[in-house]
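FW: tagging you since you asked about this chain on Friday. Here's the raw sequence from the shared folder, copied in full. Didn't touch anything.
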Amino acid sequence: MVFYEPADRDRTLFPHDPFKAIVAPRPIGWISTRTADGTTNLAPYSFFNAVGDRPPMVMFSSTGMKDTASLALESGEFCWNLATLALAEQMNTTSRPLARGENEAEVAGLELLPGRMIGAPRVADSPASLECAVVHSTRLRDRHGVEVDQWLVVGEVVGVHVDPALITGDGRFDTRVAQPVMRAGYADEYFVADTMVRMARPSA
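HL: got it, structure written out here
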């Protein structure tokens, strides 16, 4: 077993930081937001996940106060869109750095539809979207209490869009058929969720 402290890894053995490869795969935070004047923004985030279910909440974390994080905080809302294998190339296109106000969805050839509960739009072709109201945000600190350039945004899910074609006969969302694309460890690496393994939770 190899051990190292994050700030002092052996760069001969680990020329690339393995942290994000170890904590993987991760759902993609494909987040859409809208400015007060109606301009939209769409971008994928590597750090995203569910953080609670009563009520349902999700979070994304932005390295630097980028447009998505700042617009979510300004408007108090955002929409998460499920990135699937069928949408992978377009999702990747929306990661392109554009000037604030330029339309990532338009560049990627994606249609956006209005939200039902929030002003932020959703990706029309995504088979599942979560409309969220921002309930918490913070700038992260390291163990010494020093603020770092990482911003955490938590949203309560206030509306859910689901493609009925992905609902099974017993009423379950079929994640395997949806084929979500997930972040792997390095810049050009992704995983696809297409295999189901079932294990019953122990009763005692």
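FW: The chain has a mean pLDDT of 94.
HL: agreed, and The longest helix spans residues 67-75.
FW: great, closing this out.
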